[in-house]
Write a structure and sequence with these properties.
single chain, mainly alpha, Arc Repressor Mutant, subunit A, 2 domains, 12 helices
Length: 233
């Protein structure tokens, strides 16, 4: 039984390796499951036993890339706390800002694919949301709970993960508005936008003004080397 399971795992990795090469060469739209199967030297039917669709195959590749990211691992290894919650939100904001500022990059193409999926059958978007939630959701909800216990936040509603998705949708949409060659909206200076987005989201998920001022200032001051306002006052 273990030999069959290992063979299946190896076959899955072989398919993923072939798919990465195909997607890199032809993009998502230009890649077919038939071409991936041919690159992996298997039948298309066998490919479908491991991955039911092209969207599922691509979503798995993206998930593997995220899981292998050292920066994400460091983030997820932080102890749940108010500060960790602020770091999570700020890194989410910074990630999407970077995508919006480099619209020709691969990540920008993925965002466009995400948007088109919402307007189509939604399969790719659903898979990506599942992957994101499984990777980051627990760290977010535990840190939010610690913030509430510490008196740094108020509990809002009965579904903490909804707050995570509200935050995610906010930064996703703010990035999409700036991705065209002529942005749909101009938000002003990037640094000011980063702070405004962080403050807006942190207030929305329940953090009080004292906690935001203390932890967000501390986090942002690390980039400039300047002491946080709350620490120098």
């Amino acid at each position: 039984m273990s030999t069959l399971r290992m063979t299946g795992d190896l076959r899955r990795q072989l398919i993923l390796g072939a798919a990465k090469r195909c997607f890199a060469r032809h993009g998502f739209a230009g890649t077919t499951t038939k071409s991936v199967a041919a690159a992996a030297s298997i039948s298309e039917g066998l490919l479908f036993k491991h991955f039911p669709s092209k969207s599922a195959l691509y979503a798995e590749i993206l998930a593997e890339e995220c899981e292998a990211d050292p920066a994400l691992h460091r983030l997820l290894e932080l102890e749940p706390s108010t500060q960790t919650l602020v770091v999570l939100i700020r890194e989410m904001v910074r990630h999407f800002q970077a995508v919006a500022e480099t619209p020709d990059q691969e990540e920008a193409q993925r965002l466009r694919l995400m948007l088109s999926s919402h307007l189509d059958d939604g399969e790719f978007a659903r898979l990506i949301y599942q992957k994101i939630g499984s990777l980051i959701g627990n760290a977010f909800t535990r840190s939010l709970q610690r913030a509430v216990e510490a008196g740094d936040a108020s509990a809002i509603g009965g579904e903490p993960m909804n707050l995570f998705w509200f935050a995610h949708h906010t930064v996703l949409m703010s990035s999409l508005t700036r991705m065209p060659t002529t942005p749909c909206l101009s938000y002003g200076e990037a640094t000011d936008l980063e702070r405004q987005l962080c403050q807006f989201i942190l207030r929305g998920i329940g953090l009080n003004e004292t906690a935001i001022a203390t932890h967000l200032d501390r986090e942002m001051s690390r980039d400039t080397g300047q002491p946080a306002i709350s620490e120098s006052a």
